[in-house]
């Protein structure tokens, strides 16, 4: 049974009320429940974790090392800045799928660059909550 860890970065706890014209009306709890249901149907186990703190996300990735089989991550704004998160992902030696609710390539210039994408198996961006669903499907395909 594959074990998947889902990580949500800064400000994603506010989903549902935060800039709904960009991020939609679905809450983080709803996204996590849908991922849990999807994983169950696919015969996988899944745990989700959100933090507004870079170090907490890094600690969680360290704990996943040797425990989980793959990571699904929406790093929020850390996507564009965090070399420390990138290093943690590399150190974990786990396959990672990066997801974004919004299409980061259709927004501000600074969102077009990710410091993580080149160490990810792949990236899903712009499909709202479906980005997570598609990302989990792709990660489980990759793991099988
Ligand atoms: C979420 C964020 O919080 C932003 O900082 C990223 C991402 C995009 C998203 O679309 O899910 O730039």
CATH topology: Rossmann fold
User: Structural class of the secondary structure composition?
Assistant: alpha/beta
Amount of helix: 25-40%
Total domain modules: 1
Number of E strands: 5
Poorly predicted ranges (pLDDT <50, ≥5 residues)? Answer: none
CATH homologous superfamily - what is it?
A: Dehydroquinase, class II
Order of helices and strands: EHHEHEHEEH
> Which ligands does the model contain, each kind named once?
3-dehydroshikimate
Proportion in β-strands = 15-25%
**How are the strands ordered across the major sheet?**
2-1-3-4-5
The shape is globular
Mean pLDDT: 97
The CATH architecture can be named as 3-Layer(aba) Sandwich
- Largest β-sheet summary: 5 strands, parallel
Features:
about 140 residues; alpha/beta; Rossmann fold; five-stranded parallel sheet; about 40% helix; globular; binds 3-dehydroshikimate
Layout: helices, strands, pairs:
Blueprint: E1 3-8, H1 20-23, H2 28-42, E2 45-50, H3 54-64, E3 70-74, H4 83-92, E4 96-100, E5 122-125, H5 130-143
Helix pairs in contact: 2-5, 3-4
The structure holds 3-dehydroshikimate.
Explain the overall architecture.
By secondary structure, the protein is α/β, with parallel strands linked by helices. The chain has one domain: Dehydroquinase, class II (Rossmann fold, 3-Layer(aba) Sandwich), CATH 3.40.50.9100. Helices cover 38% and strands 18% of the residues. A five-stranded parallel sheet has the order 2-1-3-4-5, with helices on both faces. Strand 3 (70-74), helix 4 and strand 4 (96-100) form a beta-alpha-beta unit. The chain is globular, with a radius of gyration of 14 Å. Bound molecules: 3-dehydroshikimate.
